[in-house]
Automatic annotation (TrEMBL), chain A:
Keyword Protein biosynthesis listed: no
Protein's name according to its UniProt entry: SusC/RagA family TonB-linked outer membrane protein
Signal sequence interval, chain numbering: 1-22
Protein's organism: Maribacter aquimaris
Family under the similarity heading: Belongs to the TonB-dependent receptor family.
Localisation per UniProt entry: Cell outer membrane
Automatic annotation (TrEMBL), chain B:
Domain of life, source organism: Bacteria
Native organism: Maribacter aquimaris
Keyword terms of this UniProt record: Lipoprotein
Any matching Pfam family: SusD-like_2
Protein known as: SusD/RagB family nutrient-binding outer membrane lipoprotein
Sequence intervals crossing the membrane: none
Keyword Lipoprotein: yes
């Protein structure tokens, strides 16, 4: 009654106002980026008088009063009221409002949900973020962009792998990297080989195969509440990658062409060694060719004076600084990426076909990769109730000469970095002598001529990979559906690696041929419902089953000792060997989810899943092979539930609890096995216990529980927003390969042990400092702190050792009560006052005593941050990203050798008048002060060289990570062409360090993507990249 | 609704989610047992060792400390008594994961399969050999609990005192020798040492008892004499046909090859030490063992030895030579190629020990001289087992013995020095016997920055990993034996 009365009054009033005056107001409506917004409703407030904007965002309205208010509203934007205030022209910009529209996000298992319904953190990164500034491994583009996602791209060459860890490390020795789901299908991300203390190359990982131009979006599900439905495999977080399909393109038929070129230039500002003293020993130059050859990298010679001095090859050359060897040896790398995509979007059928070619030349001479990707995504509506989707990718990846890292044999980086200042690397060309032997520059056969390493050592691998999935959804009733999906990730990888005939440390050479075959098949069947129970209550729920099956096989043929020099084939090897490796594992699962919603502002979701693991099954085993894990999360949209001050545009509180568990990453860990190995001896077979890990027949699943709460708040028409998450989780009964005493006969033992806790905070603060028609500036800062704490190891609380550095004085280790992955190494011996204790050797030189192995640093930085900015002015766009990590340390192998060989600038001290050392004499425990004569400095520094403490440095950095400056051709120009959109960008990546703590090394130059972070040891030097990117659609 | 029920029933059917999982997790590439004979073959090859420890422990350290070799190359740590911990622990690093683990596993399998005692005896003798090499080099080592991670679940073995290890090893040898009869053992030709010949194994057991018994001479002379007496009574090696050795082949894989031969293929930095070349003057072995680096001449007049403890700078200062090319190097064309046999204990050594037993206690017939002569003859004749090109005429040996006859006045030095020459390349034994007897008298070097204060090391050091992986037991061993340094003496090596 009351309501009706109001309407009547209003109608009467309108009748009066209508005819009163007629004032015309016009203007343009744009969005945050200055793009015109068509079809915006423009209403004179309090009236029914209204119009809408045209295609170019222009409107004209006759208003009854110039003191009134205009109300602008459009789907997907926050409505805005503007007082007319006598103006005749009103231009405004509208802010997108995804939440109000009911933004749909893809959650676990591809279930689409309203963003406001989810009770956990999930961050999305648009495909353009990865496609504009392209890197050879697309996932590296996420670095610094998502809070809580810690990406380490190592110094392992363009085809190397990256380490992605979400919310800290969850397992002591197992896989800590997330699960990658591409279009609903899990893919394999195993490393195909990594460098360790004895050297090797990074064989690349699984995620690097994905073409950045095909990526529609990347969604990061961080915590357990978000990933519990993926079961054990989601324990480290999940990265959902959706690739572009026909639906995301324009209506009808379209073509998109993107092209980019990036050049990688050696970052010459990092390695900063002394240039004053040349090759030699005890302050003098090499006496002759043999000594020069013998002295190798030793820069303990005389002061460079330009006099002729013989070098390793017997040639006398001026004894003076020859300039930077690195910039001579390495080349400018380049990456060309070209993608053509055809798409079509018809009523019942859509598809997108893309072809892409990436061609990379690494900065390491003779090294590079080529990747060709073919992708077809196709969706069809077969009937009103049945929709299907088929996605397939075929990727051919060919990598030539993955650089050798870490230990010196075959590692060009080692030699180039450590040449004495008077030795020019170019004189080492060619790397091979005419008799096919290595053109050795040193009597140390393990330090390889870099040209020999680059051009004569070789490895090549070709990977053919298919990632394909098909899914079908049957909407049985309008609230009930059945969906099924099956997909596979299958690859074969053939690799050949060669140590040629003539290699100094392997005179007869050798080679290896390897074929790896990997197949993962994943299938889901799901029954779901969405139903409103009452006006206010609604529910959605599903149950499903999943099967995951991974098979891996490896065939190896190899051998040593070429018979015919220079003929490189297995048949030419005097000694041949072969082996086969096989690994199979399965997970079977049942799961379900129930979501309850009240009045579209309160949501509660429960999930449960039970996984059965083949890796925990064995005939006769009586402990559990399966685990159930529940999760619950809730979301409260306070801005909908309560009347909040108008400054608060949106506010949501969320919280969740989850449990997850797992069965370990490896098969066959439960029972001891034996093997017949090699090819026998004198007709007798050779048998032994297989493997060096002690099996464990009683292994049970590990479990992890997590609590997470968060806040999503937006203020001032979304000009300021804050997303905050706090979490804490705990892993128990971790499945660990714990290091054992070498005397046990085994190097490690598999066991359920250890407790690990992660606590952290993540925030994303976004703001729009300037928003105007012509100029917009948006900025966001994300940051995270994560502490992974080792709560327990085994019953004795013993440390768990991971990898050690080749110098064998430092390793990465987990210690109870400490953070994950401590750097533990040889320390100085000090007296109570902290003074260093020395042994005084027979000639009076103090040699620092080698102390116990102590904790020297954190291999994983707990703090990370990123600051991204985007400026648009008209058709121009400028964006940049600055990121940093703090609180971690790195052990530098480079600086260790630089000390030992007299290349480090700090070793200059004392070369003229000797170095005065004060300390404690270990023999007498009395203080001493002595001067080390220049002649014996190398003994003094040579000993320090063994003390890891000296070479553990802060790995903190702030890097100017990414820059792009783009221009989008305006519509007015494009209208006259066949193009629908075109833009061009100048891009830069890793441009410079704003701040860097460590000397001579890039703090991001670890050589392994494994759990042992914090060891630097002669990886590929870091680069700056710059280039050009072009994208057109028609 | 029917449809839903249909689907739900599929779900339930699939619900038995671990069908066949038990079989999937059985490794199809690995059997759950292999013939025990094949394990013995492998264990014997691993006792001979890989290139890794033959290079580091045997050659880089001991061959230069024992002045068989000398080098100017920095990483040959033993030449200058510097400390490379990884090289020093290399025998531990390889032996425990390979031969130690294997023999412990073989013993269990022999028990389980109810195998004849003689097979156990052979394995126990091999086990004693392996541990004796380890304990002689390092002192106190894990012995009673080692290699038993799977067998007994011991992941952190304690270090046993060397005195206890010796007592047990000697007991093991005694019991094993007693258990051996005649004829061929169940190992048959899988036994690379003696093709299953029980009598030869018995003589090897007693010869090892002789070796280990004599090791006790400084710490417990009474026990030493008792064990030596027992060993001789039990019957020791009688000819070069009794030599404990493994034959190698050039391939197909590393494990098949003589580890020292592999080193010689990769590393030519070693020269014959001046000490050794001086000893070999007028010795028919000289042109067989050595050759001049520059032109491969093996004319004795061309063969000069390199003094130990020099770098190239010092060489230049001392001799004016820029390189070591004019010095003698091992004659790698003839001796110790990749398919040469590896010797563990030789008949020559046994004769020298008998000579010593005669000298000390009047055992073995009471006269050292015939044993000495037999030892020298055997040491020279055994070279032909390496290569037919290494054969030495009996006449040359007679001439040598005539020119350098047994010298009763310096008998122990002479016997021990010949022992040192006969254990060339079995540097483990050369080092142990030198520490035991003090002969030959080696003049230590004193290179700047050396680790030992200019004395020849008395042991090598433990694997550093145990400091964190087995800290309590490691600390206990250090507390008992002394600091984990090169100069600490093992139990039997009392001053």
């Amino acid at each position: 009654m009351n309501q009706k009365f109001k309407y009547v009054l209003m109608f009467v009033a309108l009748l009066f106002i209508q005819g009163a005056i007629a004032q015309t107001i016009s203007g343009t409506v744009t969005d945050n980026y200055g793009t015109p917004v068509p079809s915006v409703n423009v209403i004179e407030k309090g009236t029914t008088n209204g119009t809408s904007t045209d295609f170019d965002g222009n409107y004209t309205i006759d208003v009854s009063s110039t003191s009134g208010t205009l109300l602008f509203s459009s789907l997907g934007f926050v409505a805005k009221e503007v007082a007319i205030g006598g103006k005749t022209s009103i231009n405004i910009s509208l802010v997108e409002d995804v939440e109000q529209l009911g933004e749909v996000v893809v959650t676990a298992l591809g279930i689409k949900k309203e963003a406001k319904a989810i009770g956990y953190a999930a961050t999305e990164v648009g495909g353009e973020e990865l496609a504009t500034v392209k890197v050879t491994n697309a996932i590296n583009s996420l670095q610094g962009k998502v809070a809580g996602v810690n990406i380490t791209s190592n110094s392992t060459g363009a085809a190397g792998s990256s380490r992605v860890v979400i919310r800290g490390n969850n397992t002591l020795t197992g896989n800590n990297q997330p699960l990658y789901i591409i279009d609903g299908i899990p893919i394999g991300n195993d490393n195909n080989g990594a460098a360790g203390m004895w050297g090797g190359s990074d064989g690349g990982d699984g995620i690097s195969s994905i073409n950045p131009d095909d990526i529609e979006s990347v969604r990061v599900l961080k915590g357990g509440a978000a990933t519990a439905l993926y079961g054990s495999r989601g324990g480290n977080g999940v990265i959902l990658i959706t690739t572009k399909g026909g639906t995301s393109e324009q209506k009808g038929f379209g073509v998109e062409v993107s092209s980019s070129v990036t050049f990688d230039a050696l970052n010459t500002g990092i390695l900063d060694f002394q240039h004053e003293y040349g090759q030699g020993t005890r302050g003098r130059v090499p006496a002759n060719e043999a000594e020069a050859f013998d002295l190798g990298n030793s820069a303990w010679g005389a002061k460079l004076d330009g006099s002729p001095v013989v070098q390793w090859d017997g040639v006398e050359r001026p004894y003076s600084y020859v300039g930077d060897n690195s910039s001579r040896f390495y080349r400018t790398g380049s990456t060309f990426v070209n993608t053509v995509a055809l798409s079509s979007n018809a009523e019942n059928m859509n598809y997108r076909l893309s072809l892409s070619n990436m061609d990379n030349e690494d900065i390491m001479p003779n090294s590079g990769l080529n990747r060709k990707s073919f992708s077809l995504n196709s969706g069809a509506t077969l009937s009103e109730k049945i929709t299907t989707q088929v996605n397939a990718k075929y990727i051919v990846e060919k990598v030539q000469n993955r650089p050798r890292l870490s230990d010196s044999p075959g590692n060009a980086n080692y030699t180039v970095a450590l040449l004495a200042p008077n030795v020019d690397v170019r004189n080492m060309q060619p790397g091979m002598n005419e008799d096919l032997s290595e053109n050795a520059y040193s009597s140390n056969i393990y330090s390889t001529n870099p040209y020999f390493a680059a051009y004569n050592f070789s490895n090549e691998d070709v990977k053919h990979r298919i990632i394909a999935s098909t899914s079908i959804r049957y909407d049985m009733l309008d609230w009930l559906y059945l969906s099924g999906r099956v997909g596979t990730d299958h690859y074969t990888r053939k690799s050949t690696s060669l140590e040629p005939y003539g290699t100094a440390f392997k005179p007869l050479g050798g080679m290896q041929e390897q074929e790896r075959i990997y197949t993962q098949v994943d299938a889901d069947l799901m029954l779901g419902l969405d139903k409103d129970i009452t006006d206010k209550f609604s529910t959605s729920a599903f149950v499903g089953v999943n099967s995951n099956h991974i098979k891996y096989e490896e065939l190896n043929l190899g051998g040593n000792d070429f018979i015919v020099p220079g003929f490189e084939d297995i048949s030419n090897l005097a000694n041949q060997s072969r082996s086969r490796l096989f690994n199979e594992r399965k997970i079977g699962s049942v799961y379900g989810s129930l979501e309850l919603a009240y009045d579209r502002w309160a949501y509660l979701t429960f999930t449960g899943r039970n996984d059965w693991f083949s890796t925990l099954s064995y005939p006769g085993k009586d402990t559990s092979n399966n685990v159930f894990y529940p999760s619950a999360n809730a979301s409260l949209v306070l801005s909908d539930a309560l009347e909040l001050p108008s400054a608060i545009t949106f506010m949501k509180l969320r919280g969740g609890y989850s449990e997850v568990g797992g069965g370990g990453d490896e098969a066959y860990k439960l029972a001891p096995t034996y093997e017949l190995f090699g090819q026998g001896h004198l007709g007798q077979p050779l048998g032994r216990v297989s493997g060096s890990t002690v099996p464990n027949a009683a292994l049970v699943p590990w479990t992890k529980s997590e609590v997470e709460i968060g806040l999503d708040a937006r203020f001032f028409d979304n000009r300021l927003s804050l997303d905050l998450a706090v979490y804490k989780n705990e892993t128990t009964d971790d499945i660990v390969n714990a290091t054992t005493s070498i005397y046990s006969g085994y190097s490690s033992a598999t066991a359920n042990l250890g407790k690990l806790e992660n606590k952290g905070v993540e925030f994303l603060l976004s703001f729009t400092p300037v928003r105007s028609e012509k100029f917009n500036w948006t900025s966001s800062i994300n940051g995270s702190f994560n502490e992974s704490l080792i709560v327990e190891t085994n019953a004795e609380g013993q440390p768990v050792s991971l990898d050690q550095a080749r110098s064998q004085n430092v390793q990465i280790q987990h210690e109870v009560g400490q953070r994950f992955g401590k750097i533990v190494g040889v320390s100085y011996v000090r007296d109570d006052a902290g003074t260093i204790v020395y042994d005084i050797n027979s000639d009076g030189t103090p040699l620092a005593q080698e102390g116990d192995r102590v904790i020297l640093g954190d291999g994983v930085a707990p703090w990370a941050m990123g600051w991204s900015n985007n400026f648009t002015f008209g058709d121009f766009n400028l964006s940049f990203l600055i990121d940093g990590k703090f609180g971690g340390q790195v052990f530098s192998g480079t600086n260790t050798f630089a000390y030992g060989s007299g290349l480090h600038k700090e070793t200059l001290e004392g070369r003229v008048n000797g170095l005065t050392i004060s300390g404690i004499d270990g023999a007498t425990n009395q203080p001493f002060t002595t001067t080390v004569t220049p002649e014996f400095l190398q003994d003094y520094y040579g000993r320090i060289n063994n003390i890891a403490e000296q070479f553990v440095e802060d790995a903190d950095y702030i890097k100017f990570r990414e820059l792009s400056f783009g221009y989008s051709f305006p519509k007015e120009i494009l209208e006259r062409t066949f193009l629908t959109s075109a833009n061009v960008s100048i891009i830069g990546r890793n441009l410079f360090y704003i701040q860097r703590s460590a000397d001579n090394i890039d703090p991001e130059s670890a050589y392994s993507a494994g759990n042992s972070q914090g060891l630097e040891y002669f990886g590929v030097p870091s680069t700056r990249s710059y280039g050009l990117s072009l994208n057109v659609k028609f | 609704m029917k449809k839903i029920l249909f689907i739900l029933s599929i779900v339930l059917l699939m619900g038995s989610c671990d069908d066949g999982f038990e079989d999937i997790n059985v490794d199809p590439t690995k059997p759950n047992q292999v013939p025990v004979t094949s394990k013995l073959t492998a264990a014997q090859l691993f006792t001979s060792g890989e290139r890794y420890e033959n290079w580091r422990a045997n050659l880089i350290y001991q061959s230069t400390m024992m002045q068989h070799y000398a080098t100017t190359t920095g990483y040959w740590s033993g030449d200058k008594y510097t400390w490379n911990k990884g090289y020093a622990s290399s025998l531990i690093d390889r032996y425990y994961e390979n031969p130690v683990k294997s023999v412990e596993d073989i013993l269990i399998q022999l028990d389980e399969e109810g195998s004849p005692e003689e097979m156990k005896a052979i394995t126990r003798i091999l086990r004693v050999f392996i541990y004796s090499r380890l304990t002689d080099l390092y002192g106190d080592i894990p012995y009673s609990e080692a290699g038993k991670a799977v067998i007994e679940g011991i992941l952190q073995p304690k270090y046993d005192a060397q005195s206890e290890i010796y007592a047990d090893m000697l007991k093991e040898l005694e019991e094993s020798a007693a258990a051996l009869g005649s004829g061929t053992s169940g190992f048959g030709s899988a036994d690379l040492f003696y093709a299953g010949d029980q009598a030869k194994w018995k003589r090897f057991a007693n010869s090892m008892m002789l070796r280990l018994g004599l090791r006790l001479i400084k710490v417990d002379p009474t026990a030493s004499q008792a064990w030596v007496t027992k060993a001789i009574a039990g019957g020791v090696m009688e000819s070069n046909a009794d030599i404990a050795k493994v034959e190698h082949t050039v391939g197909p894989e590393g494990v098949n090859q003589n580890g020292i031969g592999e080193v010689f293929q990769a590393d030519d930095n070693q020269r014959m030490s001046k000490t050794f070349i001086d000893f070999l003057q007028d010795d028919p072995r000289l042109p067989i063992l050595a050759t001049r680096f520059s032109d491969k001449s093996n004319d004795p007049a061309d063969l000069k030895g390199l003094p130990n403890g020099l770098d190239l700078d010092m060489l230049m200062t001392n001799t004016g030579e820029e390189t070591t090319d004019e010095y003698a190097e091992p004659n790698r064309e003839i001796m110790t190629r990749r398919d040469s046999p590896m010797f563990f204990q030789t008949y020559a050594e046994v004769e020298f020990m008998l000579a010593e037993a005669a000298l000390r206690w009047g055992l073995a017939g009471g006269d050292p001289e015939p044993h000495y002569n037999a030892g020298v003859r055997a040491a020279m004749k055994m070279l032909e087992l390496d290569s037919p090109d290494a054969a030495i005429d009996d006449a040359d040996i007679d001439a040598y013995l005539l020119a350098k006859p047994f010298d009763a006045a310096n008998a122990l030095e002479q016997i021990s020095t010949q022992y040192w020459a006969a254990t060339y390349l079995n540097e483990y034994e050369a080092f142990s016997n030198w520490r035991r007897t003090g002969f030959p008298v080696l003049v230590p070097v004193n290179y700047p920055g050396n680790e030992t204060g200019g004395t020849i090391p008395r042991r090598l050091t433990y694997s550093v990993g145990d400091q964190s992986n087995n800290p309590e037991n490691y600390a206990e061993a250090i507390a008992r034996q002394g600091p984990d340094v090169l100069t600490t003496r093992v139990w039997w090596d009392v001053e």
